[in-house]
């Protein structure tokens, strides 16, 4: 069996990236067109979808390229200095190719930083400032709606493939991690009402979405700002709490067999209440938890909870109650003050935790982050060496875990089809950031969004290969 070269693994230095935006729209003659460049994480991609949904409802077409657009929106990322550089480069390219550029997103919280490099942008707005973005588009290209022609799908405009969708349940974050400026850019936690989230989930599933990816800055904290207030839902009420939300979302998904996947779940004690929902099949047995490090001293310097030993106990309990659970996380190596002893502690913790999916950042200073002022910054060559050693350890764990799946039967969702085969994902794999399962025989009748059963034939460090199992 040939090993398909199209895998996106191993993960790179930015394991937080969203899938590349896909734009499928056809303009009518004379219809104003707006282009979109969406950078950064899945949460930013949802912001882009909201902006484009509003514009589409006002009669704009969405242009897949610069040349055909009357204006271009660049939704920026400001998480790391490397992300800022990428955003500035994208703005410059849009200016060169089109000239009418509107900047929004996280980097938009620093307008002088952007206009200092690109003074010709039409407008700069911060994250979630949808009205200001619309105002800037109206000035650049006045709307010309035709209510008899411009129809908006019930799900709004989506930049992901039609069979999966990100569902944002809250904005902002109440944590004060020293390396992060997201609370400064996006504010404190603001949760959406539970019934509003569930209504959106219901619309997406009714429209044929086969996988809902639940996202926020801190999914575990959902509803804390609302004091977990209840709101009317169907024949009763639903509480603004992640356990209740996940349960109700799972009930909505069950009839169609759609998947519900939880991302960015901090390991609060009440996370253990989600595990029975996974064991019952209401939500996928998958937790994406940003541990960031394991050594108590490093975590303390990060201003994060420092109970890594207790976390190992929690992981053991999760696996006891739901043996099929997949655990994904991200880590930072080379954080200021990280000693070789602390780094080795992290490697040993990894050996014990045996996480299934792991991404890793090398620490970078970010303008405005408190960690910039910490003493004992780690030299670049040491950070690179530690990143390589960390990823080597994580890869060995992944390789062993995937090898153990050879011969197993897995349900997979089909993402793409080309002449080489079908690119799919198991329940253990989120789009873009995790691995793939490839089918290179008998795939000709498959379509994106299909859910099929396969037997795993082969494994590599990050990906699987399998054969279709015939029904009956």
Summarize the structure.
This protein is α/β, with parallel strands linked by helices and 472 residues long. It has 3 domains: 33-140, 3-Layer(aba) Sandwich (Rossmann fold), CATH 3.40.50; 164-403, tm_1862 like domain (pyruvate-formate lyase- activating enzyme); 409-468, OB fold (Dihydrolipoamide Acetyltransferase, E2P) (Beta Barrel).
Structural account:
This protein has 472 residues and is an alpha/beta fold. It has 3 domains: 33-140, Methylthiotransferase, N-terminal domain (Rossmann fold, 3-Layer(aba) Sandwich), CATH 3.40.50.12160; 164-403, tm_1862 like domain (pyruvate-formate lyase- activating enzyme), CATH 3.80.30.20; 409-468, Nucleic acid-binding proteins (OB fold (Dihydrolipoamide Acetyltransferase, E2P), Beta Barrel). Helices cover 31% and strands 20% of the residues. It has 12 helices and 20 strands. It has a 5-stranded parallel sheet, sandwiched between helices. Strands 16-17-18-20-19 form a 5-stranded mixed barrel. Strands 6-9-12 form a 3-stranded parallel sheet. Helix 11 (340-353) packs parallel to helix 12. 45% of the residues are buried.
